[in-house]
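@channel sequence for tomorrow's demo:
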Amino acid sequence: MIIVETQKEWNKFITEFKSESSVIVPVQCDDNKHPLATNLCLLYVRLLDDNTEEYILPFRHSDAINLKKKYLYQIKTPQKVFTYDKKKLLHLLQLDNIDDIQMKNYLDKNIPMPIDELTTNAHEHFNRVYWGKSNINCIIPIMKHLEKSRLIVNEISKGVFGTIQDCFETYNNDVISNLYNIEKNGLKTVEGMVYSEYNPYTSTGRPSNRFGGINFAALNKKDGSRKKFVSRYGKDGILVEMDYDAYHLRLIGEVIDYKFPKGSVHKHMSKLYKVGYDEAKSLSFQYLYGHIPDEVVKSNPFFGKVQVYINNVWNSYKSNNFIESDIYNKRIYKSNLSDMNKNKLFNYLIQLMETENNMRVLTELLPKIDGYKSKIILYSYDSFLFDVHKDDGMKFVKMVKSIIESKGKYPVRVSKGLNYHKMENITEKL
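structure tokens (generated this afternoon):
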């Protein structure tokens, strides 16, 4: 193991790093902070091809002569880099050609790797004694970081083996990159910037999103907690949200080849049910996420097709021992699921369909808005939140709306506001 502190040691490291594949474990100064709200303490790098050499690159550690920040920007390689959390690593170190072993393991087993459980006695001691203090990792001995990093590498090495799904490249490159690009923009509050943290390793594939005691995926619309979220551009900015209309109904409709007429899906369904709008909306959600009564299957052409789809999915699941998503062809294996029934399995697929379509939209959207001042700052299930600069104006909003709607297949409701609590519907103005 080499602690890189001199130019000679650096030259040796960078030469070997550029010629061999490697595993990288980043250690940030403060594990209690978002990677964007702290600094990089050190990097552990294990080379894989010939000599399995180990390097520690210190940047902010009390035990070492730290490398200057400029060296961080010189860490580039054409070789494959493996890590357990690609999104976190990208926040700390810009690299191409990264494989997220956690994602590979998740696609294989449908559970996250137990990385957070790996520790040393020293880490537990320092975090207990110095609880509440910042940058604890900068004083935990380097050799203990080495010990913990080895534990992590041994764990992720298990994820190298097993099934490699065809969708891995899409999830590794598109899904993780999309979530990374939203996270890095942050959200402005009246107290300062905060950062979200998406967790894509959930049982259904729908990312959770919480950090710092805030559940960004479930911000309350009624208790005023959204008021603190404002534009980073002050008087020159405004928040704009785009919510899909009857999103799940439209997604399923496309899969089962049911053509909704133009206009409101819920109005269409109210005619089929012969009830009012609000009751129709309630019934649709009740049937979609629960049991569809036989009389509804027989009388409602949409839910008749939905029931056929549910039955086909269930039969395929029992015979093939897996289900496969309709967009990215992600497989969830029967051995990784428990207490399944028809409707529960269908709900898994709905959430997966929602997530993958959102990722497909983001993969198209993000490169096209990269040159604008305006930023996407939050994605939650069926909505996207933007911090829009006045210089980009309504032209930007209309362009984004067109992409998110996928040429009109999934209409959105557009709202704007000076804060995230008080939002005005401006759909008709667009």
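heads up for whoever presents: The mean pLDDT is 94.
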